[in-house]
Amino acid sequence: MTISLNHTIVPAVDNEAAARFLADVLGLEYGGLHPVARHFAQLRINDQLTLDYMTVPEPTGHHLAFDVDPATFDAAVAHLREHDLPHGDGPGTHTNGRVDERHPLGGRGVYFADPSGNLYELISPS
C-alpha cells in the first residue's frame, strides 16, 4: 500500500488570510473555502495535498517544509523580498533576510512565518 498525505489542518487567526498568504508566496491560486467543510480555507499544494486552514482563537504555529524546484524557490524568495516579508536562513533565524545556500538536506533553504506563527520552510536543489 502506498501512503501519502492527503491534507493537514493548519491553525490560523484568519483562515482565508493565511491561505492567501502562502498562495501568494508560492505562486499558487487560492480556491476559496472547502466545498463541503466550509469552515476550512483550502489551499491546494499539488494533486495529492491540500492545506486546510482553520480559524482558531489562539493558534499554535506548525512547521511545514516543502521541496520546491529552483524556479519556484527563486520566485518565492523574490516575493518575500519585494513585499518586505521577514525571511531567513534557519528556523531560529527566520527573520535575518538571508537564504541558506548549504541547507542540511541539500541545496538551498529559506524560512518564513505567516501572521499566525506557522513557520514555512522551502528547500530547493542548487
Automatic annotation (TrEMBL):
InterPro entries: Glyas_Bleomycin-R_OHBP_Dase, Glyas_Fos-R_dOase_dom, VOC_core. Residues 4-125 form the VOC domain. Residues 83-107 are annotated as: Disordered. It holds the Pfam family Glyoxalase. This is VOC family protein.
